[in-house]
């Protein structure tokens, strides 16, 4: 398909590699770093980002769906890949076929894992434990013992790891997090030695050394966020740039956009950007967000449309049709981060980044722009 619109996502692969190197150096010697590349690598592009993280020292990858893992295999990636979510029978078959490590969250899933292992000559699994998130995973000694009994009998279902996930590490609830660590230590006592024990994602990796165990599953830090003042030089790698599609001058009293949610109080110049909420820009930024044009912050005015955004460019000298407006990123001395957008839109950084998966064309650079 010919791409005529210049609006785009730009991802710096050298930055992603650098962030992986930073996180790998933060870990104690011998601890494994698995890069979380679910949701199209948080909007960065799963294949290209995975390759960058592996080149930066990541030992493996985490996805949520078996289909994502198969996509990586088809791209020629041979590194260990763990599928995190509960997996149905069809998904477990795909895991066995593509040599993906499957997460086991229930006794029923183990039975399907046995069928997949029989069909393809084996299946590697990690056992997921519920220690307080109450989203999924085996709970308590009874279920754990049943799972271990099954694995002893079905040797072609090979246990490679056991893990859990924090509920409050991102929110500074140390008491809840330490309770989960203690429970994980207790629940994993019956598991065989030599398998990978892991619990920490990005926040817990940086905040709780006792949660690192044999390795960690990092996402947000690898994309340049959640440094927690730990001396790490983590750098955001993704920029979102909109093309300026139209410019007009307004007089006092002119309304802008659907519902005339903005009315000019004085003469002003506005630009219409070739990007909208269908591209991932939160509609909740209407009349309160901003973009950067030629190094100048320009307020978003009126309601953000499905495919277009209007902004006040009165202070942006030399703005012109065909020029660029930064929705997210750095232009001159001005910067807008995913954290800035999340705060203004009442969301979280994860959602802000994931919004930019898919719709906009992604361009990849390897170093400076």
> First CA to last CA: what distance?
25 Å
**What is the percent of helical residues?**
25-40%
Main sheet specs: 8 strands, parallel
Which structural class fits the helix and strand makeup? alpha/beta
Second-tier CATH architecture of the largest domain: Alpha-Beta Barrel
Mean pLDDT: 96
Shape: elongated
CATH superfamily of the largest domain: Alanine racemase
CATH class of the largest domain reads Alpha Beta
Helix-strand string: EHEHHEHEHEHEHEHEHEEEEEEEEEEHHE
Write the CATH fold name of the largest domain.
TIM Barrel
Number of strands: 19
Classify the beta-strand content into a percent band: 15-25%
Strand order of the largest sheet: 8-7-6-5-4-3-2-9
Q: How large is the radius of gyration?
A: 23 Å
- What is the domain tally? 2
